[in-house]
Amino acid sequence: MNILDELSKYKRIVDLELEKVMPKEDFPQKHIFEAMCYSIFAGGKRLRPVLTLKTSELISGSYEDAMQIALGIEMIHTYSLIHDDLPAMDNDDFRRGKPTNHKVFGEDIAILAGDGLLNLAYETMLNTIPLNSRDYVKYILAIKEVGKAAGVFGMIGGQTVDIKTNEKSFNEERLMFIHNNKTSALIEASIVSGAMVAGANEEQIEHLREYGRSIGLCYQIRDDILDKVGDKSLLGKNTGSDEINHKLTYLSLFGMDNAIIKIQSLYNEAIESLSIFDKERVRFFKELASYLVHRES
User: Fold this and answer.
1) Which of 37, 72, 130, 154 could form a disulfide with 149 if both were Cys (CB 3.0 to 4.6 A apart)?
2) What is the DSSP string of 222-286?
3) Domain boundaries, the chain
4) Which pLDDT band, with edges at 50, 70 and 90, does 232 fall under?
5) Alpha-carbon torsion 282, 42, 29, 13, what sign?
6) Contact indicator for 270, 218 with CB cutoff of 8 Å
7) Which among 174, 162, 177, 293 has a CA at the least distance from the CA of 225?
8) 165: which DSSP letter?
9) Half-sphere exposure in the Cβ direction for 58 (13 Å, CA)
10) What is the model's pLDDT at position 147?
11) How far apart are CA 163 and CA 247, in angstroms?
12) What is the CATH code for 3-294?
């Protein structure tokens, strides 16, 4: 299996499904539709929705039941990027190689575009619940998992602590809270929600949760490294912003060498968490973990 080919294949699947649900009608509020679509179709790896689909496929052999959950997760992720880029947050000019949403549509519409994507995410996920079936509980639990990961006890909580952290309050406990909530929580929920919808048992969910936590933290630390030494043309955004904004990162606290060691340790933990599954069936997840350790974009 070529991991980049597999990611590309499932990215195309997600993109086609997003085309079906994103609003484009010629209504009075069409300007907000344009702003939402601008960011959702600006590129990106679609890592989170792909993880949802692939986890569902691992458990049940199919990703169909998890599709709307996956789309909702990508909308939540994109809304968070729009808001992250705003002048009041990270004040970034480029995202995925294109001008950020507020640079194109203005801050007011960018805020509303993020709000629109967040609300549409839950509309989309809720539309997948089969109310005439006893299976509806697993969908509710999956959406609850995503909601918590995206909210004040997950991503927003991590973002809040990130904003309120200065160099005087740099410490490992704070760093882990920010990374585990701001980035890792939604990656973990992408995997767990896919498993829930597919009917995974408690043991499978717990091992997949551990995998998600490990690769989520690995993803963020690699991001810290790329912000320092990455290629702007590959990343599609400016580098060096963490240092300019005096951000608490793994590098600022422990340095480059320790960051690389930590990533390798997280990779080992991720692989170990997959040990209860058939080796061939989790090949994608093992290769993905390796890719995240070495990714350049």
Assistant:
1) 154
2) HHHHHHHH--HHHHTS-S-HHHHTT---HHHHH-HHHHHHHHHHHHHHHHHHTTTS-TTTTHHHH
3) 3-294
4) low
5) negative
6) yes
7) 293
8) -
9) 30
10) 98
11) 9
12) 1.10.600.10
What sections of the chain are H helices per DSSP? 3-21, 30-40, 47-60, 67-84, 101-105, 107-126, 136-150, 155-163, 172-179, 185-197, 202-229, 232-235, 241-244, 250-254, 256-273, 283-294
Strand partners, 167: none
Distance CA(85)–CA(88), nearest Å, equals 8
Tell the burial category of 143 from Cβ atoms under 10 Å away from its Cβ (0-12, 13-18, 19+).
buried
Cα 175 from Cα 184, distance rounded (Å) = 12
With beta carbons less than 8 A apart as the criterion, state whether 153 and 190 touch. no
Record the tokens describing residue 20, joined without a space.
Answer: 């079906």
Q: What are the beta bridge partners of residue 94?
A: 99
The pLDDT of 188-204, averaged and rounded, is 98
Which tops the pLDDT comparison, 107 or 228? 107
Tokens 């955004």 locate to 237
Q: Give me 246's structure tokens.
A: 């005096």
Between CA 162 and CA 247 the distance in angstroms is 8
In tens, the pLDDT along 132-143 reads 777 899 999 999
Q: CB burial class (10 A; 0-12, 13-18, 19+) of residue 88? A: exposed
Three-class SS state of 171 = coil
The residue among 220, 190, 166 whose CA lies nearest residue 72 is 190
Tokens of 53: 């689909």
Structure tokens at 72: 């909702």
